[in-house]
Write a structure and sequence with these properties.
Layout lengths: L14 E2 L2 E2 L2 H8 L18 E5 L6 E8 L2 H9 L2 H4 L11 E3 L10 E7 L12 H20 L6
Antiparallel strand pairs: 1-2, 3-4, 4-6, 5-6
Length: about 150
Amino acid sequence: MSISHPPSASNPNQYVDGVYDSLGALLDEFGTDTPDTCEDGVMSLQDKVLDATHMSEGYIVSIKAVPTSNEINIAQLLSSEELRSRPDNHCIPVLDVLDVLPDLLDDSNTLLVMPYLRPFDDPPFEIVEEIMDFIHQTLEGLCFIHEQEVAHR
Protein backbone atom coordinates (compact mmCIF):
# COMPACT_ATOMS: atom_id res chain seq x y z
CA MET A 1 0.00 0.00 0.00
CA SER A 2 1.48 3.34 -1.00
CA ILE A 3 0.29 6.29 0.99
CA SER A 4 1.46 9.86 0.72
CA HIS A 5 0.98 13.13 -1.03
CA PRO A 6 2.35 13.51 -4.57
CA PRO A 7 5.86 14.90 -4.99
CA SER A 8 6.45 18.37 -6.31
CA ALA A 9 7.87 18.81 -9.78
CA SER A 10 11.02 20.30 -8.24
CA ASN A 11 12.01 17.08 -6.43
CA PRO A 12 10.65 14.11 -8.45
CA ASN A 13 13.56 11.78 -7.62
CA GLN A 14 12.94 11.88 -3.88
CA TYR A 15 9.71 9.96 -4.23
CA VAL A 16 9.74 6.40 -5.55
CA ASP A 17 6.73 4.07 -5.72
CA GLY A 18 4.75 6.14 -3.23
CA VAL A 19 7.46 6.25 -0.55
CA TYR A 20 10.01 8.95 0.26
CA ASP A 21 13.57 7.65 0.15
CA SER A 22 14.65 9.37 3.38
CA LEU A 23 13.51 11.56 6.23
CA GLY A 24 15.53 14.38 4.65
CA ALA A 25 13.62 14.06 1.38
CA LEU A 26 10.31 14.14 3.22
CA LEU A 27 11.27 17.24 5.20
CA ASP A 28 12.69 18.91 2.06
CA GLU A 29 9.38 18.31 0.30
CA PHE A 30 6.98 19.32 3.07
CA GLY A 31 9.12 21.31 5.51
CA THR A 32 8.35 21.36 9.19
CA ASP A 33 5.09 23.29 9.00
CA THR A 34 2.28 22.37 11.33
CA PRO A 35 -0.96 21.01 9.78
CA ASP A 36 -2.76 24.33 10.19
CA THR A 37 -0.18 26.07 7.97
CA CYS A 38 -0.20 23.44 5.21
CA GLU A 39 -2.37 23.93 2.14
CA ASP A 40 -4.14 20.58 2.55
CA GLY A 41 -3.72 20.21 6.30
CA VAL A 42 -6.60 18.90 8.35
CA MET A 43 -6.53 19.63 12.06
CA SER A 44 -7.42 16.47 13.91
CA LEU A 45 -9.29 16.49 17.18
CA GLN A 46 -7.13 13.55 18.21
CA ASP A 47 -3.44 13.74 18.89
CA LYS A 48 -1.21 11.70 16.58
CA VAL A 49 -3.74 11.21 13.75
CA LEU A 50 -3.07 12.49 10.23
CA ASP A 51 -4.94 12.31 6.95
CA ALA A 52 -3.35 10.90 3.78
CA THR A 53 -4.38 9.65 0.36
CA HIS A 54 -4.30 5.98 -0.61
CA MET A 55 -2.33 6.34 -3.82
CA SER A 56 -3.58 3.33 -5.79
CA GLU A 57 -7.24 3.69 -4.76
CA GLY A 58 -7.44 7.48 -4.39
CA TYR A 59 -9.44 7.63 -1.16
CA ILE A 60 -8.58 9.45 2.06
CA VAL A 61 -7.28 7.42 5.00
CA SER A 62 -6.17 8.23 8.54
CA ILE A 63 -2.72 7.38 9.80
CA LYS A 64 -2.60 6.97 13.57
CA ALA A 65 0.62 6.79 15.57
CA VAL A 66 0.25 4.22 18.35
CA PRO A 67 2.80 2.93 20.83
CA THR A 68 4.52 -0.18 19.53
CA SER A 69 2.71 -2.59 21.84
CA ASN A 70 -0.08 -5.17 22.00
CA GLU A 71 -2.52 -2.50 20.78
CA ILE A 72 -1.34 -3.20 17.24
CA ASN A 73 -1.91 -6.96 17.57
CA ILE A 74 -5.34 -6.36 19.07
CA ALA A 75 -6.32 -3.95 16.28
CA GLN A 76 -5.16 -6.47 13.67
CA LEU A 77 -7.08 -9.28 15.40
CA LEU A 78 -10.28 -7.22 15.43
CA SER A 79 -9.66 -6.43 11.73
CA SER A 80 -9.08 -10.04 10.72
CA GLU A 81 -11.30 -11.39 7.95
CA GLU A 82 -13.02 -13.81 10.33
CA LEU A 83 -13.97 -11.11 12.86
CA ARG A 84 -14.57 -8.36 10.28
CA SER A 85 -17.42 -10.39 8.81
CA ARG A 86 -19.33 -10.39 12.09
CA PRO A 87 -22.22 -7.90 12.11
CA ASP A 88 -21.56 -6.99 15.76
CA ASN A 89 -17.97 -5.90 15.00
CA HIS A 90 -18.14 -2.11 14.82
CA CYS A 91 -14.38 -1.62 15.31
CA ILE A 92 -12.54 0.63 12.89
CA PRO A 93 -10.61 -1.73 10.60
CA VAL A 94 -6.85 -1.53 10.23
CA LEU A 95 -6.02 -1.35 6.51
CA ASP A 96 -2.26 -1.54 6.96
CA VAL A 97 0.52 -1.32 9.53
CA LEU A 98 3.45 0.83 8.51
CA ASP A 99 6.09 -0.72 10.73
CA VAL A 100 8.79 -0.32 8.07
CA LEU A 101 8.14 3.44 7.92
CA PRO A 102 8.82 4.84 11.40
CA ASP A 103 6.87 7.65 13.00
CA LEU A 104 9.08 10.63 12.17
CA LEU A 105 8.32 12.31 15.49
CA ASP A 106 8.61 9.32 17.84
CA ASP A 107 10.36 6.08 16.93
CA SER A 108 8.59 4.21 19.75
CA ASN A 109 5.39 4.43 17.70
CA THR A 110 4.04 2.35 14.83
CA LEU A 111 1.71 3.84 12.22
CA LEU A 112 -1.72 2.28 11.62
CA VAL A 113 -3.60 3.06 8.41
CA MET A 114 -7.37 3.15 8.86
CA PRO A 115 -10.38 4.54 6.99
CA TYR A 116 -10.86 8.28 7.35
CA LEU A 117 -13.98 8.81 9.46
CA ARG A 118 -16.22 11.76 10.14
CA PRO A 119 -17.32 12.61 13.70
CA PHE A 120 -20.10 10.37 15.00
CA ASP A 121 -22.63 13.21 14.82
CA ASP A 122 -21.84 14.33 11.25
CA PRO A 123 -24.43 14.60 9.85
CA PRO A 124 -26.33 15.51 13.01
CA PHE A 125 -28.96 13.13 14.33
CA GLU A 126 -32.42 14.19 13.19
CA ILE A 127 -34.75 11.71 14.85
CA VAL A 128 -34.69 9.71 18.08
CA GLU A 129 -34.45 6.43 16.14
CA GLU A 130 -31.03 7.50 14.79
CA ILE A 131 -29.79 8.20 18.32
CA MET A 132 -31.11 4.84 19.53
CA ASP A 133 -29.41 3.07 16.61
CA PHE A 134 -26.12 4.80 17.46
CA ILE A 135 -26.37 3.75 21.11
CA HIS A 136 -27.28 0.18 20.09
CA GLN A 137 -24.28 -0.09 17.74
CA THR A 138 -21.96 1.37 20.39
CA LEU A 139 -23.07 -1.10 23.07
CA GLU A 140 -23.08 -4.00 20.59
CA GLY A 141 -19.49 -3.14 19.64
CA LEU A 142 -18.52 -2.94 23.30
CA CYS A 143 -19.98 -6.41 23.93
CA PHE A 144 -18.13 -7.69 20.86
CA ILE A 145 -14.70 -6.54 22.03
CA HIS A 146 -15.39 -7.92 25.51
CA GLU A 147 -16.25 -11.28 23.89
CA GLN A 148 -12.79 -11.17 22.32
CA GLU A 149 -11.36 -10.61 25.83
CA VAL A 150 -10.19 -7.13 24.93
CA ALA A 151 -10.25 -4.43 27.59
CA HIS A 152 -10.46 -0.78 26.60
CA ARG A 153 -9.76 2.63 28.08
